[in-house]
Amino acid sequence: MLRGNDTGESPVLLDKKESRWGPTQSEENAIMARKPCGMHVEDIKSEIRKRFGSLSGVSKQIGLARNGISNILSQPGYSISGEKKVAKLLGREPYEIWPDRYHADGTPVSRVVDRQPTSTVPADLRQNGVAA
Hints:
This protein is mainly α. Helix content is 39%, strand content 3%. It has a two-stranded antiparallel sheet.
């Protein structure tokens, strides 16, 4: 906020906190950092359509089901081999298209969660006193 005084001096910048609704700047940066930086789904679709025709036709040509490409684009981990076929079709590496799905060396990111028990069940609560 600028404010001039009565003596005709130049305006002085006053320090004023702005009240904001929503996330703070650091929260916005954290949200932005989580976004994948690969190709957008619509960009992939449009590039395939421009070069080769309909998605279903291309899916059949590369040996997938009619809705294979649509499923690959919308469901991470649907078909690793299909993702690699789409990447080859576009002339790119899978990591360039889906950096959230592949490591830089080309290996897929594991979608399986490693589950560790948070606590052990006491032996007296187990049937027959042994683990299942």
